[in-house]
Amino acid sequence: MKDKHRSSSDEPLKGGRRHPLLLQIRLNEMVFWPATLIIALTAALLIWNPPKMQEYRPHLTIILLGSAGVLILTFLFRLRAYVRCQPQVLHIQLPFRHVDIPYGEIQTTRPSELFRLFPLRQQSPLQRNFLSPLLGYTAIVVQLRNLPMSRLGRRLWMSKYMLGPDVEGLVLAVPDWLEFHNELGEYKARSHYAQPPT
User: Fold this and answer.
1) Neighbour-count burial of 45, counting CB atoms closer than 10 A to its CB (0-12 exposed, 13-18 middle, 19+ buried)
2) Separation between Cα atoms, residue 118 and residue 103, nearest integer Å
3) Higher pLDDT, 192 or 157
4) pTM of the model
């Protein structure tokens, strides 16, 4: 007689939950207030339309549209960028493209604080301003057999803070690093056991 209670390890895994990338959240937060202030000021000037500013209306319109575009774009980046465990691959969705990493390419994973990976003294003033609010967060360092994409592709589509400074791998900073780390370990193990013996 078959056991009605199947082991949870026998059940097929569905995709894990989406973990938003902190770097894109920080970018949106960094842009939000300056862009909002510029939009409010230029909109007020356009509505008020003082005589001395009338010749600058085209410039103000361009500033208004440009600031609104940057704000909307960074918000869309924030919504679009995430990492998610899928049954056979680790799916990393970037703003303009995605990367699928087979679990067999992952050698090790470990948590590490961002301030240890990217010390502030090694960053430029602008980079410090961007990175400072994130330094208290823990990221997951995923060591890989081979880095995804070409070097040029990584420079185009990935932040330098997504690349491991001390290993060949990726730094994935998400709000709930513990849940993501546990998920990644489970999916990697299940993927290994699902492979047919050679």
Assistant:
1) middle
2) 26
3) 157
4) 0.82
